Amino acid sequence: NYILDIMEFVDNSVDYRKGHHVIDNWKVIEEVIKKAGKRFKIINKPEIKEEEEIKDLTRRDPSEYQDPRPRPAVVTIMGHVDHGKTTLLDTLRNSSVVESEFGGITQHIGAFSVTVNNRDRITFLDTPGHAAFCSMRNRGAQCTDIVVLVVAADDGVMEQTIESINMAKQANVPIIVAINKIDKPIADIDRTKKMLLQHGLQIEDYGGDIQAVAISALKGTNIEMLMEAISLQAEIMDLKSDYSGPVEGVVIESTSDPYRGKLSTLLVQCGTLNKGAILVAGTSWCRVRVMFNDNGETIQKASPSTPVQVLGWKELPSAGDVTIQVPSEKKAAEIVDWRKKQELYEKMKEDQVVIDKKMEEHNEQYRKQLEEKRKLGYFKLRRKGPREKEYIDTDTGPKLCVVIKGDVDGSVEAILDVLETYENPKCKLDVVHYGVGPVTKNDVILAKTFNGIVYAFNTGILPDTKEEIKSQPVVIKNFNVIYKLIDDLKSEMGKLLPMLD
Ligand code: GDP
Question: What GO annotations for molecular function exist for this entry (predicted)?
């Protein structure tokens, strides 16, 4: 706010006083702002006592795995709009519900598991489309092993098909193609395959190693085949994870349930999650109170590649937040606190960039104005009418800075008028600010910054200003006769001149 005040003050001075009073003060004002920035700790890094000890949480390296074992593949379904992603997810999910021995009701928790051949499990992330895939990746939470690219056999390769191919390639995630809608009479599987080939997907039929399965998501045709293809791909990839040690995972989605409270779906990636574990995700933490699987059943353990809904968060974590287990609630709270400070600091830095930019713009604009005015001989003018002499450049010489406050417009104007006509070739007078009303905190801050004096004419001091003076001693002089004020001002200027002069 202080910075804005000063900027406003500069603006006003430039417009109203036509640069008269602050014209030479730009540099000083820049200093003020820098000083203010420091004083109010605008850019200073928040003090973080535990910084040394905390060293933010990191995932463990696969070489550190204590109990590495195969884990299910995690699959994301991508493809062009209307090509059947949602339909395929529904078909897959339903096949899993039928299998569930509890016959539970499907819960949409952001991911679900399916068993293939009564053996392998596959986990599907059920937010279709690349928005989810991308946002997770951008946040450094890679959680997809395989992309199933859905391409409708009637449409063939479309814009978002190509986007999906590029994204998967960029992320180095293998693709399995599901050529969908083969039940449609106009479906053209061969044409679709050729199109894929043209876009750099080496389909098996054409000697490549990318599996393509022709399916009907709607009719459920060849769904088993697609799952087997995924299983095969997973086998080739030899996916493994650590089943022991601290849990690592990623938040798939978060919801606030009116009955159950703050819930988030976690994809466990490392370790085995148990009830009572303490997790940190982004800037929130939880002690796991209850865990639910994708059928809404309560579970006691969740191993790698298992999606699990967790209850017990203090605040809701965001999708894409990396989640890591910590040993104690104290540690969790410390880390969250530390991260929040970091976040605040980052935000402050961003704000500072905006302010710097604005300042720079101001500065530039001001310099131009200054130059224009110089050309017009403006500095030979005084407040009203022409002035005979140019200001002496006393940037290096003595200068008295004053803030003038008066009871009414007339008195302030009168004082300024006198000062205008007053010339002291040896000491420059700079009215850094003037106005009507009592002496405010801002007046004091300004005077302090410019090492100046506040002259008050027939006016008082605001109570909070008195407080301010305690911390920043500033001379405030009160007068009720104009010439006495002027005399004092002159003598103050005299005090600034070198003794020998
Ligand atoms: P998304 O936008 O990729 O999620 O596509 P949807 O799953 O919403 O499907 C778009 C439309 O295509 C819907 O009307 C589906 O019923 C239809 N559809 C999806 N799969 C098939 C399929 O295998 N055969 C036919 N005939 N229609 C399908």
Answer: GTP binding; GTPase activity; translation initiation factor activity
Q: For this complex, say whether ipTM is above 0.85.
A: yes
DSSP track, 223-249: HHHHHHHHHHHHHHHT-EEESSSS-EE
- Tens of pLDDT along the chain (501 residues) come to 455 555 555 555 443 333 333 334 455 555 655 555 544 333 334 454 544 455 678 888 888 899 999 999 999 999 999 999 999 999 998 876 544 445 455 667 889 999 887 788 999 998 766 666 666 665 556 789 999 999 999 999 999 999 999 988 988 899 999 999 999 999 999 999 999 999 999 999 888 999 999 999 999 999 999 999 999 999 999 999 999 999 999 999 888 888 888 999 999 999 999 999 999 999 999 999 999 998 888 999 999 999 999 999 999 998 888 999 999 999 999 899 888 887 877 777 777 777 777 767 766 776 676 666 656 654 433 333 333 333 334 455 677 888 899 888 778 888 887 887 777 777 778 887 888 888 888 888 888 877 889 999 988 888 888 877 887 788 999 998 888 898 899 888 888 876 544
How far is the centre of ligand 1, averaged over its atoms, from the C-alpha of 187 (Å)? 13
Cα–Cα distance measured from residue 182 to residue 184, given in angstroms and rounded to the nearest whole number: 5
CA of 180 to the centre of ligand 1 (A): 8
Q: Which two tokens stand for residue 122?
A: 């596959």
Site residues for ligand 1, CB cut-off 6 Å:
79, 81-87, 128, 180-181, 183-184, 216-218
Report CA(66)–ligand 1 centroid distance (Å): 44
- Which helix (DSSP H) or strand (DSSP E) does residue 285 occupy? strand 284-292
What is the 87 CA–ligand 1 centroid distance (Å)?
Answer: 6
